[in-house]
Design brief:
Distance between the termini: 9 Å
CATH class: Alpha Beta
Oligomer: single chain
Number of strands: 8
Largest sheet: 4 strands, antiparallel
Strand order of the largest sheet: 3-1-7-8
Number of domains: 1
Number of helices: 3
CATH architecture: Alpha-Beta Complex
CATH topology: Cyclic Phosphodiesterase, Chain: A
Shape: globular
CATH superfamily: Cyclic phosphodiesterase
Order of helices and strands: EHEEHEEHEEE
Radius of gyration: 16 Å
């Protein structure tokens, strides 16, 4: 476990919790991104590639320790997931690689974490089921990419983190506030 970075006072910070990807997976994702046809989109940089468990949005800094505590508890009870790329898909503003959650462990962690965060009053779970995915491109107009998804093999994240997100003109900048190993 890494110790939390500081977020001072009553300031607000944009928070999300995510599974961190193994270095080898990130390297293969970056290689795949570089092979995409040139289009009007922005590649998600390597340091921002992750599998989101819960997006909390703007929260008071005073809530960060409780959010980190919820992640520690959920992660301690979790088993490492096994993810495999299922397909590439686009929404109105992002392109993503959707994963098949081989044993349901990632979804179980997301559901457990959502319940803990809801009880803290810092999160409301979405009505739709959680989807294991990595956002790989962002755009204003859908590029309708047809590139085949990469074969990443089995992706087994070993830890999860609480992130702070700062929006900038050239894209979001993420900072890990605390990371925790899965399974305690």
């Amino acid at each position: 476990m890494s110790s939390p970075a500081t977020v001072a006072g009553d300031a607000k910070t944009r928070l999300f919790l995510a599974l961190r990807l193994p270095d080898g997976t990130i390297e293969r994702l970056v290689a795949w991104q570089r092979e995409l046809p040139q289009a009007a989109f922005r590649l998600v940089p390597p340091e921002n590639l992750h599998v989101t468990l819960a997006f909390l949005g703007s929260r008071r800094a005073a809530e960060v320790p409780a959010v980190c505590g919820a992640l520690r508890e959920a992660a301690a009870a979790a088993r490492r997931p096994s993810l495999r790329v299922a397909r590439y898909r686009e929404t109105r503003s992002v392109g993503m690689l959707a994963f098949h959650d081989e044993d349901g462990r990632a979804a179980a962690l997301a559901v457990d974490l959502a319940g803990r965060l809801e009880r803290l009053g810092v999160y409301r779970a979405e009505a739709r089921p959680w989807l294991a995915h990595v956002t790989v491109v962002r755009f204003r107009v859908r590029p309708r990419l047809t590139a085949p998804p990469p074969d990443l093999g089995d992706v087994s994240p070993s830890d999860a983190a609480v992130y702070s997100s700062v929006l900038r003109s050239d894209g979001a900048q993420y900072a890990v506030l605390e990371s925790v190993a899965l399974g305690g």
